[in-house]
UniProtKB/TrEMBL annotation:
Its EC number is 4.3.1.19. Residues 434-509 form the ACT-like domain. The keyword Protein biosynthesis does not apply. Belongs to the serine/threonine dehydratase family. PROSITE patterns: ACT_LIKE. Pfam families: PALP, Thr_dehydrat_C. This is threonine ammonia-lyase. InterPro entries: ACT-like_dom_sf (IPR045865), Ser/Thr_Dehydratase (IPR050147), TD_ACT-like (IPR001721), TD_ACT-like_sf (IPR038110), TrpB-like_PALP (IPR001926), TrpB-like_PALP_sf (IPR036052).
């Protein structure tokens, strides 16, 4: 069939034909990726999950397929003019890979905020054939700059998703799933940015498995396809959350929208916390460190785990190009504990023993994952705790226990002061403070054991800063206050530097004490 007659076909048939023809092109640039079984952790019912490992592709993301297919179709004259593209990372690497293989000059516009690791990866794949141009602070600004350059120079613009041949290239991923012999599947969860991958995969799988439920997944704060479906046409979002940076697109593609509208049964959203939890599960099961957008599909599966029980479910890890520093950010979120968690602010009387009474009473059997407190009132304390439990039912009883003991409390959803650990401490309310750096062995109950054994009713807490990090050693900065210097010095003298359950406990240096308390109180003698 000629190109002219192909253009007369309906869009979905053009896409399917394009996927067939892309088979011959894309494998000059990379090989098929594995389809693997993922065993969900835990004993609760769940689906049989199969994972398409696009993180194991030549650029550790699926985008090489579309870029390679589109650029392989360049005429000799177009190759001479060169290409221009805009990308926050993965599409840029795909264009770079193809540019080097085809000896085509490429200028790739990337936002100024693009991490250095992603820029270096583009240079590695493209070598001397590519030039990176840092344009604007967002993908949209980089896109506008790239389109302006293409219009001015005559270079060919290679779109990241709103191009039929780019979509056809992405569709070879779906073709590999069909050819694997592991199908059919009951449900597939497909992440959506601009929609190119979801559209191509949905069109292809619908052809072979017409009863398959095809579900689009977007992150909260960037649901451009969901907004397009609601409006009946692509619309531009005013703001886009960029935690899942690989899918942070303000406007769904026109071509992908036309396909997704007719193939997807629905589009749903997941939270950043649910994405973080999915990243953890991928690491614990497949030893895969997915980028946030790469874990969207699994996040939806985990969200509906019980409802999907008994089904055969398909997801795609679309990429693993995560900045190393972002791994630390993800690891610090509450969602990355394998346990249920809850963050609470609890009112206590500012009296000696009240904190330990709470910890040893209502918190019995629970794990403290985060503890923030600074004395800022003479009579009332409002410490903030994040507590976790292996058994969600045990955590669910905590509010009733607090109510039964007469505690006033409120549930928190990571407000700014908690997220940024803004722990207020009024030094003018302190008498004779002493601060310690405590390193203890991170096991259930270890921190509470230390406090009961070493503090008891000998001191009043004036400060506590501790966050579970996932290491074998927990680290806390703890402040105590005393009525007299004699009482304080006796407490310090009795505090061992090592002991059962903890590795080190040492007083902080004078400058740290002064900064914390805002005073020039003499440091305690060790």
């Amino acid at each position: 069939m000629s190109a002219d007659s192909s253009a007369e076909l309906p869009l979905d048939r053009q896409l399917r034909q394009g996927i067939l023809l892309a088979r011959e092109r894309v494998y000059h640039y990379g090989q098929a990726t594995p389809l693997e079984r993922l065993i969900l952790p835990g004993n609760e019912p769940g689906p049989e999950v199969w994972v398409k490992r696009e993180d194991l592709s030549p650029i550790n993301a699926y985008k090489w397929r579309g870029a390679a297919n589109r650029m392989a179709l360049l005429t000799a004259a177009e190759r001479d003019r060169g290409v221009v593209a805009a990308s926050a990372g993965n599409h840029a690497q795909g264009v770079a890979l193809a540019a080097k293989a085809l000896s085509v000059r490429a200028r790739i516009h990337m936002p100024r905020s693009t991490p250095r690791v992603k820029q270096d990866a583009v240079r590695q794949h493209g070598g001397d054939w590519i030039t990176i141009v840092l344009s604007g602070d967002s993908y949209d600004e980089a896109y506008e700059a790239a389109r302006a350059e293409a219009d001015a120079t005559g270079a060919v613009y290679i779109h990241a998703y709103d191009d039929l041949q780019v979509m056809a290239g992405q569709g070879t991923m779906a073709d590999e799933v069909v050819m694997s012999g592991h199908g059919p599947f009951d449900t597939a969860f497909l992440q959506i940015g601009g929609g190119g991958l979801a559209a191509a995969a949905a069109a292809w799988w619908q052809t072979f498995w017409p009863d398959m439920d095809l579900v689009g997944v977007e992150a909260d704060g960037q649901a451009s396809m969901q907004a397009a479906l609601a409006a009946g046409q692509p619309v531009t979002l005013a703001n886009v959350d960029i935690f899942c940076d690989g899918t942070a697109v303000r406007r769904a593609g026109t071509l992908p929208f036309a396909i997704c509208r007719d193939t997807l049964s629905r589009v749903e959203t997941v939270t950043n916390a649910e994405v973080g939890n999915a990243i953890r599960v991928l690491w614990e099961t497949l030893r895969c460190v997915a980028e946030p957008s790469g874990a969207l599909g699994l996040a939806a599966v985990l969200k509906h785990r019980t409802a999907l029980a008994g089904q055969r479910v398909l997801i795609v890890i679309t990429g693993a190009n995560i900045d190393f520093r972002q791994i630390g950010l993800v690891a610090q979120t509450q969602s990355l504990t394998p346990r249920a968690s809850q963050t609470l602010r609890i009112r206590l009387p500012e009296t000696r023993g009240s904190m330990l009474g709470l910890l040893g009473g209502c918190f019995a059997g629970l794990n403290i994952a985060d503890f923030q407190y600074g004395k800022n009132h003479a009579e009332i304390a409002w410490p903030i705790f994040t507590v976790t439990a292996d058994d969600p039912a045990a955590l669910a009883t905590l509010p009733a226990r607090l109510d039964a003991q007469g505690y006033e409390w409120e549930s928190l959803d990571q407000p700014d002061d908690v997220q940024f650990r803004a722990i207020p401490l009024h030094g003018d309310l302190l008498h004779q403070p002493a601060f310690f750096r405590l390193d203890f062995y991170e096991r259930s109950g270890a921190l509470l054991d230390f406090l009961h054994a070493r503090v008891r009713d000998l001191a009043s807490f004036c400060y506590f800063n501790y966050r579970q990090s996932g290491e074998r050693i927990g680290r806390a900065l703890i402040g105590f206050d005393f009525d007299s210097a004699t009482e304080r010095d006796a407490f310090i003298a009795a505090m061992p530097t090592q002991g059962p359950g903890f590795r080190t406990c040492r007083p902080v240096d004078p400058s740290t004490l002064a900064r914390l308390t805002g005073s020039n109180l003499p440091p305690p003698s060790a």
